Amino acid sequence: MQLETMTVQELKQAKIYIEYELPGKLVSEAVNRLLEVGLSDQTKIGRLRVTKQQRLYGIIEGNVFHAIWWDPLHQIYPWEPPNT
Fold it and tell me: Which of 30, 40, 56, 66 could form a disulfide with 48 if both were Cys (CB 3.0 to 4.6 A apart)?
């Protein structure tokens, strides 16, 4: 799948892109990173699922995804399976 050729709507429909409310479950290091790069005013962060484990986080402005950090081990926004 070539993410760069897909629209935001296509990414959402394919469940490749989702948005999280901030700060939500972001680890503290990620919240601090938003402060460092001047994005403390953001209310949402987007996540692209690149592989089963790898994620790319950033902000969408219009049709442009601005990458903020790479999460190769799925550690920035921990996920807990339902019923645990």
Answer: 56
| 70 DSSP β-pair partners | 56
How much is the pTM? Answer: 0.83
Could you tell me how far CA 55 lies from the centroid of its own chain? 7
Closest CA to 44 of 25, 59, 33: 59
Q: What are phi and psi of 23, to 5 degrees?
A: -80, -15
The model's pLDDT over 7-34, given as tens digits with 9 standing for 90+, comes to 888 988 999 999 999 888 889 888 888 8
What 8-state DSSP symbol labels residue 44?
A: E
Cα distance between residue 67 and residue 12, in whole Å: 17
* pLDDT tens per residue, range 59-82: 988 878 899 999 999 899 877 666
